[in-house]
Amino acid sequence: MPKLIVEGVGEFDVDAGKRLILALTDDAKVDQLHACGGNARCTTCRVEFVSGEPSQITDAEKSVLAAKGITGVRLSCQLNCHSDMTVRIVSRLAGSGRADAGKRPTDAIAPPAVWDVKA
Fold first, then answer.
1. Nearest CA to 26 among 82, 81, 96?
2. What DSSP state is assigned to residue 25?
């Protein structure tokens, strides 16, 4: 069982293969934004990795981050928990002015993951 450490929140054992966005919201109870419903379109589910950053990236994540010129973060909706990781939350509902965090993401990465190696 991978261990997820969320800075300032705590440590959590999460099911192997669980989407990081769901581990953050379900297990860590973080008010992580995911305005597009976890479909790699809005980038509101950004996290910074302190340690354990996965070496793979979906084509969807790579494209949306590049299109918006965003670096130094990953999209929690495009990652699965396969090993221990420590993250810093970047986008929370609190203070965002949004009515809610977003529609609950599906259990599987969407759009269907096409994997690449992170540069």
1. 81
2. I
- Bond into 111 cis (ω within 30): yes
d(CA 19, CA 94): 22
Residues ≥6 apart with Cβ < 8 Å to 111: 39, 40, 60
Rounded mean pLDDT for each run of 10 residues along the chain, 119 residues in total: 98 98 98 96 97 97 96 98 97 95 97 89
Q: Using a cut of 0.90, tell me whether the model's pTM lies above it.
A: yes
3-state secondary structure of 83: coil
Q: What is the pLDDT of residue 21?
A: 98
Domain residue limits, the chain? 3-95+109-117
- Taking alpha carbons only, the member of 39, 5, 23 closest to residue 81 is 23
d(CA 48, CA 107): 22
Q: Which helix (H) or strand (E) holds 34?
A: none
CATH dotted code for 3-95+109-117: 3.10.20.30
